[in-house]
Design a protein that fits this description.
This protein has 148 residues and is an alpha/beta fold. It is built from 1 helix and 6 strands; from the N terminus they run H-E-E-E-E-E-E. The C terminus is likely disordered.
């Protein structure tokens, strides 16, 4: 082969490689743009714990907030970081952050599906409310607005 034909082949190869890199880069950007990033969003939770159900891998708790923000069902797992008073019990106020939804199962063969709850990443809880009281205590109401 002559030197001029090798340069042409090499020039063609370099042109092809540059186009391939641009195409690959565009595809990577398109795929990353389409990923569901909201599935891993951290959301706040907080309110009064009204119900607790045991699950195979933690507890499914029902949290009610008078203002509706942060209410719902949440999963407390062994990986949940708790502060000061530890995991909540019924009639305590909680405040924390959650991320992905987890299923709650009881039993192993066959497992019984109980429900879904967002996994609690970290949370703090108050002391239990005095018996007969529904919203007393320093942590229950801050400026008349619950936990918020």
């Amino acid at each position: 082969m002559h030197a001029s034909s090798i340069t042409t082949i090499a020039g063609y190869t370099l042109l092809y490689m540059r186009s391939f890199r641009k195409l690959t880069g565009a595809c990577v950007i398109a795929v990353l743009g389409l990923l569901p990033l909201t599935a891993f969003a951290i959301t706040p939770m907080g309110g009064l714990v009204t119900f607790m159900r045991p699950c195979n891998y933690g507890y499914l708790i029902t949290v009610v907030n008078p203002e509706g923000i942060g209410s719902g069902e949440f999963m407390i797992t062994p990986g949940t970081i708790t502060f000061l008073y530890g995991p909540p019990i019924i009639h305590t106020w909680v405040l924390g952050m959650t991320d992905v939804p987890l299923p709650c199962y009881i039993g192993f063969s066959p497992p019984v599906f109980i429900g879904w709850g967002q996994r609690v990443t970290f949370m703090g809880s108050s002391l239990p409310l005095p018996s007969g009281s529904e919203s007393s205590g320093a942590n229950a109401v801050i400026n008349g607005h619950g936990l918020y």
